[in-house]
Amino acid sequence: MGNADYHFNKTMTLPIERVLECEEALYRAAGMSKEDAYCVSQHLVEADARGVYSHGIQRSSLYFKRFEQGGTSVSAQPEIVKQFGATALVDGHNSMGMVAASYGMNVAIDLAKKFGTSAVSITGSNHFGTCAHYAEMAANSGMIGFCWTINAVNIMAPTGGTERMLGNNPYAISVPCATKPNVVMDMATSVVARGKIVMAKKTHSPIPDTWAKDVNGNPTTDPEAGYLGTVQPFAGYKGYCQTFMNMVLAAVLNGSYFGPQVIDLYEEPEKIQNSGHLMQCINIEAIDNLEAFKKRMDEVVDYIKNGRKADGVKEIFVPGEIEANNLKKAKAEGIVYPMEVIMENRALAEKYNVPEALRL
């Protein structure tokens, strides 16, 4: 995913530290604890810095609407409600998705340190941002991390159907390297995440006709029509099959909402989401020496990147490399934001009486 996936008009560039400071103040003003406000803000700002604007601070207006109308609790805390060996069930108690998911992945990491592997199922959660963040928590702990989630709204039709019955349920895998950034795959099972269509709506930008279909099942370049219609699965029926199984792993397994129970995150902010996730870890040291594995991963990356390039291609990338490059650039130069997102965020800060000095 690159910044070319987005079209911005007027922009503003801000240092990562500045955005994080302002977002944390905003979520503190909503009633979150300092720890939870930082957890959420760090996740959102990291997404923007990696170029994944669909899951960055542009989501705050949506999250605050859910706070205001009772759909999501600003103060609830997750807890382990069942544990057996290397597995656990976490109840998020309707906490923010980032809070519940971070807690769950930390449990998974701790269990994998003890048992060599782990699986932690999370229920009672909410939209949690990017899957990559949690998979990378494991990779940064010397493990291979896996993350599955069910989407926040049914936006995909099964192959052969026209009705919205499934989410584009995302998943991620992250693997550590020795001298290179983690290799991380994070993707929805649609051609693009619906958040990209939302971002296109906000910036009044057309979308490729491969992203979505309108309510009549026709490909569209109008983000409003795509928002109201359905997203297109990647690889046709294969994307449908993948999203079906991701739903089972993330939600059916633990009794979270799925199918007709799934609310519309955007249009029903007053309703409980009861989202589900699954976090898994493989402790590399349980199988082989961690440093030896990381060196082999470096070799794999070099092998792929040194492959023969097609005409017109300057560089071959491995999964997550573009986002890692974006993050490196953002740390040095700041994050480029569209003014629509900046103004929306400022309006929220003003509404919640955030001090002027802590507004974007």
TrEMBL record:
Source organism of the structure: Succiniclasticum ruminis DSM 9236
GO MF annotation: an example: oxidoreductase activity
Native organism taxonomy: Bacteria, Bacillati, Bacillota, Negativicutes, Acidaminococcales
Family per similarity comment: Belongs to the LDH2/MDH2 oxidoreductase family.
Protein name: Malate/lactate/ureidoglycolate dehydrogenase, LDH2 family
Pfam families: Ldh_2
Keywords of the record: Oxidoreductase
InterPro entries: Mal/L-sulf/L-lact_DH-like_ah, Mal/L-sulf/L-lact_DH-like_NADP, Mal/L-sulfo/L-lacto_DH-like_sf, Malate/L-lactate_DH-like
